[in-house]
Design a protein that fits this description.
27% of the residues lie in helices and 25% in strands. The chain has 197 residues and is α+β, with helices and mostly antiparallel strands. The chain has one domain. An eight-stranded antiparallel beta sheet has the order 2-8-3-4-1-5-6-7, with helices on both faces. A hairpin with a 2-residue loop joins strand 3 and strand 4. It is globular, with a radius of gyration of 16 Å.
């Protein structure tokens, strides 16, 4: 079972329809743009109007916190966000299903739903297998499954990305952006995806 300290840090986000995405080596404003969000200059937290996302840079990683949206779980958005870098996403749906995805330079390396982790997808579906085993997310015989435990999935992210989540990650101020429906990623990024596909 994942660390209870991480569950305490997440607070209400551990139970809600939330998405958490880490993006390497990218400015917060660029992350918002790639997510298709419009900056909200006078706001620095994600509580309030919906749908808002917050971006906060900690070291080399930018955390994208989506308390009520799922852009970071969308494969097209993740491909655009990860172009030229790495993105890792954990989405917890209202039905407690959790999806973990690792995307590098627009390509899904591995993606799995923690309720059926044996069905991993991507160009290297087993890339995170040793870490998944450590946290009960590999779906192997005799394993006590972590299932919909968002904290177990985030513990995998911590180890895979060599980060240590602390209160600094989850508390504001954030650079806040507003999502408008399913606004597609920037045109130049979509064109790049089409050329590479």
């Amino acid at each position: 079972m994942a660390d209870e300290a991480l569950r305490a840090l997440l607070g209400r986000y551990a139970q809600a329809n939330s998405c958490f995405t880490l993006v390497a080596d990218m400015a917060e404003s660029e992350v918002l743009d790639r997510f298709g969000a419009t900056p909200v200059p006078d706001q620095d937290d994600v509580d309030g109007r919906e749908p808002l996302i917050g971006v906060k840079r900690v070291g080399r990683w930018a955390l994208v916190l989506e308390p009520n949206s799922t852009q970071g779980a969308d494969s097209e958005v993740l491909s655009a966000v990860s172009r030229g870098t790495v993105a890792v996403s954990v989405h917890r749906a209202l039905d407690s299903h959790v999806r973990l995805s690792l995307v590098e330079d627009g390509v899904v390396v591995t993606s799995l739903a923690t309720m059926s982790p044996m069905s991993r997808e991507g160009v290297e579906p087993d890339r995170l297998l040793p870490v998944l085993r450590e946290f009960g997310l590999a779906g192997e015989p005799g394993e006590i499954p972590a299932g919909g435990d968002v904290c177990a999935a985030l513990a995998v992210v911590q180890q895979a990305c060599d980060v240590s989540f602390s209160a600094q990650w989850w508390q504001g101020p954030f650079m806040v952006g507003e999502l408008f429906g399913s606004r597609p990623p920037r045109r130049d990024l979509r064109d790049g995806l089409a050329e590479s596909g």
